[in-house]
Amino acid sequence: MRVVIAGGHGKIARHLERLLAGTGDEAVGIIRNVEQAPALRDLSAEPVVLDLESAAVDEVADVLKGADVAVFAAGAGPGSGAARKETVDLGAARLFADAAERAGVRRHIQIGSIGVDRPARPGTDEVFAAYLRAKKAAEDDLRARDLDWTILRPGRLTDEPAIGEVHLAEKVDYGEIPREDVAAVLIALFEEPRSFRRTLELVTGNTPVDEAITRL
């Protein structure tokens, strides 16, 4: 299996790349900074340097050609302003989906965030409110496409070791989840048709990952 990951140097992406190397699958990570390339190679992933804020759709489609799965795990990240939430969390997500359609890659998984479909609370920081708006708009854009998409919304992400037990459903109570567990769930969803065209929320729970998938 060939998996192309937007945001290839992100924390979830690096867990995913490591797990894919362990299964003998091919991971391709799209990164903005050439200095991040050695870290991906250390994980047996192929780095591709491409700025999704400025790339043309054909450039991204060339990377996606021949892929079995496209994973959008990019984000403007902490410390970025409201404008970059629009250009990365929405704009790059839209570009990546456009490119997947052009390259003929039907399986598409996008990392979302719990809470984006709820109104921002009064007094919410404007940058965080912009992030929520951008993530929701990116979800709405993907849902309108003729792709085998899944939107995966993890709760608060942590860097704790994987627990291996999760709660995965269309709606879950807010909680947290190790990034390593998110990566394991991503792989389990790749070829799971019961997850196609669904928005799923994910937090730590009491169900092993494989069992949580079968319960969808």
Automatic annotation (TrEMBL):
Domain NAD(P)-binding residue range list: 7-193
Superkingdom in the source lineage: Bacteria
Name of the protein this chain belongs to: NAD(P)H-binding protein
